[in-house]
Amino acid sequence: MSGIRVLVADDQEIVRTGLVMILGAQPDIEVVGEAADGRRAVELARRLRPDVCLFDIRMPGLDGIEATRSLAGPDVADPLAVVVITTFDLDEYVYAALRAGARGFLLKNAGAAMLSQAVHAAAAGDALIAPSVTARLLGAFARTGPASAPVHPVEVLTDREEQILAVVARGRTNNEIADELHISLSTVKSHVASLMAKLGARNRVEIAMWAYETNRVRS
Q: Which residues form the HTH luxR-type domain (predicted)?
């Protein structure tokens, strides 16, 4: 099995070099490109089609949010997996990153292990949000409000799907959900796929956003 191909974009060379070294030390991760600004990051991402893009929020020319939207936004037919990483622990950044299509949000002090987890999660279609911001997501959504009215499911969600929805919205991975609900991993995947189909969601972050916007999840 080939490794996870990652593109790293950060305008600070010392930070970018550190991220590349951390990821490159992982046996199943290969850094295939580096960029110092958002426009170059988008250009490289479209050409290289990495499995995961790791973008800083504050970059010259085109910031990480806009770069993410260009590659993973609602209008992108074949979105890439993007993890946003930043020094700034601000709710509006979390909301903007997820709204733009990011599959993960991390702080730069998260550590090598969590960085690796976020890349693996994004590559697998999961989402990893920094623990320090996960609990505040609902508040950020409540203050900002959805960009448009939440969609109605094409079919009513089953009780089990509502249960899966709640734990997906709290940032749990498929393995964690299986352990928490005492069901098989394949069953979790089946329910997540059903939720995506019913909600018209492209990934589990969009499932989580729908849960917040329809008040399925409360802090």
A: 150-215
Give the pLDDT confidence of 184-203 residue by residue, as tens digits.
Answer: 999 998 999 999 899 988 77
**Alpha-carbon distance 173 to 126, whole Å?**
6
pTM over 0.70: yes
Phi and psi, residue 78, nearest 5°: -125, 75
The phi and psi torsions of 105 (rounded to 5 degrees) equal: -145, 120
Token pair 């993890």 in the structure block, residue: 83
Strand partners, 5: 30
Distances (CA, A) of 71 to 21, 25, 41, 58, 107: 24, 26, 10, 17, 21
Domains and CATH numbers, the chain: 4-136 (3.40.50.2300), 146-213 (1.10.10.10)
